[in-house]
């Protein structure tokens, strides 16, 4: 595995964060979401959103994986927003990599950083939502000890309705 620095993102990282976010959606979701939606993603708009959310403290700061001077990926975690989740349930809300870093161990390091953050903030269980058709993502979460719990939801993204499935685990199962 390449030498990876895992650190919290700051406002100054918003553009790199957005670049990885957009690139990751384009390679990971091609064929799972409409091309028009993926082709219309805008790094500058996403960067402005990340900068505002980090600046205003609207979300916990994401974790970045940095290799040399390159942001290779990021993860984000917070308390679950699911209606049926108690306050001890954390959620990994994002885990994205630049395509060239898939399979290098960077994703696992970002996953572990998100879990550490959730543990440190008192969460005892975790969840993650993933597109039902995202087999790569589902396989990763299963390797990390996550299990589908039967919950599904429909998300309207662009003009498409997509189905997501929820994976859950206690921390002792997800290490």
From TrEMBL:
Residues 4-172 form the N-acetyltransferase domain. It comes from the Bacteria. Keywords: Acyltransferase, Transferase. Signal peptide: none annotated. Pfam families: Acetyltransf_1 (PF00583). This is GNAT family N-acetyltransferase. SUPFAM superfamilies: Acyl-CoA N-acyltransferases (Nat). Transmembrane segments: none annotated.
């Amino acid at each position: 595995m390449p030498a990876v620095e895992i650190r919290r993102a700051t406002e100054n990282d918003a553009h790199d964060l957005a670049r990885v976010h957009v690139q990751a959606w384009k390679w990971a979701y091609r064929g799972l979401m409409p091309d028009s939606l993926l082709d219309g993603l805008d790094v500058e708009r996403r960067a402005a959103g990340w900068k505002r959310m980090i600046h205003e403290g609207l979300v916990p700061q994401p974790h970045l994986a940095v290799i040399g001077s390159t942001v290779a990926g990021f993860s984000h975690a917070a308390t679950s927003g699911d209606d049926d989740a108690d306050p001890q349930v954390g959620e990994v809300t994002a885990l994205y990599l630049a395509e060239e870093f898939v399979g290098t161990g960077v994703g696992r390091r970002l996953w572990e950083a998100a879990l550490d953050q959730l543990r440190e903030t008192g969460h005892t269980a975790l969840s993650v939502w993933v597109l039902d058709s995202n087999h790569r993502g589902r396989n990763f979460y299963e390797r990390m000890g996550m299990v589908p719990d039967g919950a599904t939801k429909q998300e309207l993204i662009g003009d498409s309705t997509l189905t997501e499935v929820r994976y859950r685990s206690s921390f002792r199962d997800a290490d």
